[in-house]
Design brief:
1 helix, homoheptamer, mainly beta, 76 residues, five-stranded antiparallel sheet, SH3 type barrels
């Protein structure tokens, strides 16, 4: 797995399930479909988690990069 | 549906109903008429939701991009 | 009404009454006289609203774009 | 009075008394002597108002643009 | 005293005592030695004020521009 | 160890364990795999610490630079 | 000591002990090893202070510029 720049880690996670944590404390999981240099992100099959439980399903989701704290690709 | 960059997801949602969540916790729904790279957005037939209920109708609405957390196109 | 970019919606609202909502929760109404790409805005015959009631009149008003959440042109 | 861009409103207010409201809730009045595209502003004969009363006099005052919500020229 | 742009006011205040107010509510006084377009500032013989009393002396002080609300040159 | 610019310190820490502190008060440790000029960072074998105890393991982690306060390379 | 621009003050402080105050209220002291135009800073032999007492030692420390309020070089 090649990773020289941080965005390479997002590229490696494309079409895989990722966990997003937002500045307002929310957690989202979904399949990473697209991202750009602002870390604007599109998830599919997205779900909002509260205490690890699915709170609601959101299908396709555009998330503005400046609200994101971290993105954690799953370990598969 | 082609989606290589995050803004493609917004382009695919043009003229469809979308849900917006703002940094101040508010939810808006409306027909996505326009957006730009700052994620400035124009909605038509916009409504503000509180607990899933329509609180007020706002017709055309310009929303400044830096107040937006996420945009969720409807799944149709 | 042509609208390809979000600022077109503001252009269509020029010289009409608009409602502004600011990040500090305040509401302003007035006639939209000018705006720029930062969404800096000038209103004339501006009034501050509290709970829908006019709290004070402010005549000409320059509002810095980064304090604005949304701009709602009236539907006439 | 010509006003095509928002900064024209500030240009029209030069050497006149203006009211500034800052993001921390403070109000300043003074004679507008200079401004730039960041909305950095210089006031002379500046006073800080609390509940409409003069709290202190500050003479010349440089105010950083990103702390400003609005600038209201007097209506003369 | 020439002042066409806001930074001219800071230039006129060079080597004079100024009052700085920061976004966290603190007040600093000191001799203005340098500034740049970001309003990064260097003070010498700097003191932090609390309720108008000197709380501590800080000698040379570099202050990052984005923490500054206003700079008030003394009126001499 | 050569260090002329701040990013040199991060370069020297590549492939070593580092401690990150975020603006929301959280602490993360992990192996620094990549960073860029925005201080976007990728950690591997990442763990979130609460009071010095491991709260959860997160494997690969992309962290947006603007949420980071400091990065402390270990002293080996 | 030459100082025409604010960064000259930081240049004069290189390899000397400095005090940093961060936006979250924390104080750090350490030897200034590097800085850049964003005021990203590297300290060595860094310590976090609470009420003037050393709370913990952190060795090398990269601090992101946008979290810094001020930098105070020691007066030697």
């Amino acid at each position: 797995m090649i990773m020289e720049r941080p965005l390479d880690a997002l590229n490696n996670a494309k079409n895989k399930r990722v966990l997003l944590e937002l500045k307002n404390g929310r957690q989202l999981v979904g399949v990473l479909k697209a991202f750009d240099i602002h870390i604007n992100v599109v998830l599919e099959d997205a779900e909002e988690l509260v205490n690890g439980e699915v709170k609601r399903k959101l299908n396709t989701l555009f998330i503005r990069g400046d609200t994101i704290i971290l993105i954690s690709p799953n370990s598969d």
